[in-house]
Amino acid sequence: MQRYFISEENIKDGSVFISGDDFHHLANVLRGKPGDKILCVAGRDKTALVEITEIANESIAGSIIEWKDESKEMPVKVAIASGLPKGDKLDYIVQKGTELGAAEFVPFVAARSVVKWDDKKAAKKQERLQKIAKEAAEQSHRAAMPEVHSPIRFSELLKVSETYPHKLIAYEEEAKQGESTVLSQVLNRLNDHDSIFMVFGPEGGFTPEEIMKLKEAGFLACGLGPRILRTETAPLYALSAISYHTELMR
């Protein structure tokens, strides 16, 4: 059954109204018709079973049949901060990271980031990435849509992380030296509704100065197994490990 994220402003007196890209997808791509049923997500764990009642020129109206009790989100909030990578790697991180349960994506400009976004590019790319997250959340039956931030400077990254009680750096030098316990120790300390902020470098990795500043801000450096992972693979490894520990082992 097709799933769409909608704002609470689009719900009124037991009815749901869908417009914009979702209207186009439902009306023109899926050829929806009155009587068809869809799922509409209006917030974390708030999903309505909806029957389409009317298809107009630019909007679709539906009647809420029932609210479904869904709990498909990770019990902990995971923010993924990625040093701007080359090409479409950030698209991949956001898409697959959303499927794996990430709650937030924070791209940042690292010292070794080859890619530089100007203000015009940043706004358009952030909008595109948010759309990728929305579609991935719908496809994977998420009950919440991750937020994708516009790229920030490294100094701002440190400020954004201040509200997170658990903070980790995925650092290849730790993996090369055989570090294998920090991630496990942090996961063992996690409680439901906890939050964890994980930082991943661009293709060239972090500079020693960046690692020093991150550690001064309370980050712990960890390895992600004995192999060196690509910048687009490491966040997915971490999310899989967190999901296994917090969802499958309980």
Structural notes for this entry:
The protein is of the alpha/beta class. Helix content is 34%, strand content 26%. The protein contains 8 helices and 13 strands. Strands 7, 8, 9, 10, 11, 12 and 13 form a 7-stranded parallel β-sheet that branches. A 6-stranded mixed β-sheet has the order 1-4-5-6-3-2. Helix 2 runs parallel beside helix 3. The chain starts with a strand and ends with a helix.
Radius of gyration equals 20 Å
Give the termini separation. 29 Å
How confident overall, as mean pLDDT? 90
Beta strand count: 13
Helix content: 25-40%
The fraction of residues assigned to DSSP E strands is: 25-35%
Distinct helical segment count: 8
Major sheet size, sense and barrel closure = 7 strands, parallel
Low-confidence stretches: none
The H/E string reads: EEEHEEEEHEHEEHEHHEHEH
Net shape: elongated
- Helix vs. strand class: alpha/beta
Summarize the structure.
This protein is of the alpha/beta class and 250 residues long. The chain has helices at residues 20-29, 89-99, 119-139, 154-160, 172-176, 182-189, 208-216, 234-248; strands at residues 3-5, 11-12, 15-19, 37-41, 47-55, 59-68, 77-83, 104-109, 147-148, 152-153, 166-170, 195-200, 220-222. The strands form two sheets. Strands 7, 8, 9, 10, 11, 12 and 13 form a seven-stranded parallel sheet that branches. A six-stranded mixed sheet has the order 1-4-5-6-3-2.
